[in-house]
């Protein structure tokens, strides 16, 4: 009686019973489903690794490019500082050369003034010496005439009336000789001074010519230096402008690399969230 009640109870429950074979088939299906899920999981992991590797490579490349950009920027800043120092040196050298040229012009102008003053003094002394020479010539001529007249009178027969005249003639001759001696004494320092001035003038002319040649050479060198310095300054300005453009490009490159790095980081975070979501889903299943 109990055996009959058992089937009746099974039928009353409304759930068909499974045989061992059916349970084995169902269990095998579950095992195969789990295997497929594990295979899909492994494929997803491999796909995630495959997708993550290029991103990591791009991040490493971006990091290397950022480091290279920083090195280039540091090098560019160092070159910029060196260019600024060199420009300062060029400007100081240009100022020094200009100051030396102005000093040379001032010295040359003073030498010209001294030469003009010496020439004027020499002209005055030469004029005074000429006047004294003319006066001496006239005195010599007058003295010669008087001496000739006195000699003729001395050669003539003596006359008592000529005694005072002879005395006056001797006195005049002595006075004339004294005057000639005084004129010679006065003319001697003038001639010496004129000779000294001529020598001084010759020396000044030589110094003037030497100074002119030196000034011309200094002016030529100064112009060459100015041209070289201006050309160098122009090159330095162009170099500074080029360096500024390079710095701007490096700043833009660094900003772009930072943006790319942010994008790659966002992608990695997204991949990480996906990986975690897949792991949680597998654990819940």
From TrEMBL:
GO terms for cellular component: intermediate filament. This is SYNCI protein. Residues 15-271 form the IF rod domain. Keywords: Coiled coil, Intermediate filament. InterPro entries: IF_rod_dom, Syncoilin. The gene is Sync. Residues 20-142, 201-260 form a coiled coil. It comes from the Eukaryota.
């Amino acid at each position: 009686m109990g055996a009959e009640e058992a089937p009746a109870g099974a039928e009353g429950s409304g759930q068909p019973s499974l045989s061992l074979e059916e349970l084995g088939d169902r269990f095998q299906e579950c095992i195969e489903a789990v295997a497929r899920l594990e295979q899909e999981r492994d494929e997803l992991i491999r796909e995630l690794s495959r997708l993550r590797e290029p991103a990591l490579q791009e991040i490493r490349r971006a990091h290397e490019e950022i480091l290279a950009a920083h090195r280039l920027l540091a090098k560019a800043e160092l070159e910029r500082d060196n260019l600024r120092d060199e420009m300062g040196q060029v400007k100081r050298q240009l100022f020094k050369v200009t100051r030396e040229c102005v000093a040379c012009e001032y010295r040359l102008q003073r030498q010209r003034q001294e030469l003009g003053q010496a020439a004027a003094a020499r002209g005055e002394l030469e004029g005074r010496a000429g006047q004294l020479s003319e006066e001496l010539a006239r005195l010599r001529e007058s003295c010669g005439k008087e001496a000739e007249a006195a000699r003729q009178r001395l050669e003539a027969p003596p006359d008592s009336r000529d005694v005072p005249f002879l005395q006056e003639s001797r006195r005049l001759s002595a006075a004339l000789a004294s005057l000639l001696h005084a004129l010679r004494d006065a003319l001697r320092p003038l001639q010496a001074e004129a000779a000294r001035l001529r020598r001084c003038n010759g020396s000044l002319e030589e110094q003037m010519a030497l100074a002119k040649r030196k000034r011309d050479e200094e002016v030529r060198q100064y112009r060459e230096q100015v041209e070289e310095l201006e050309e160098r300054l122009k090159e330095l300005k162009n170099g500074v402008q080029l360096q500024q453009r390079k710095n701007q490009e490096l700043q833009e490159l660094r900003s772009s690399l930072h943006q790319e790095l942010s994008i790659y980081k966002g992608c990695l975070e997204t991949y990480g969230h996906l990986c975690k979501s897949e792991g949680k889903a597998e654990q819940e299943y």
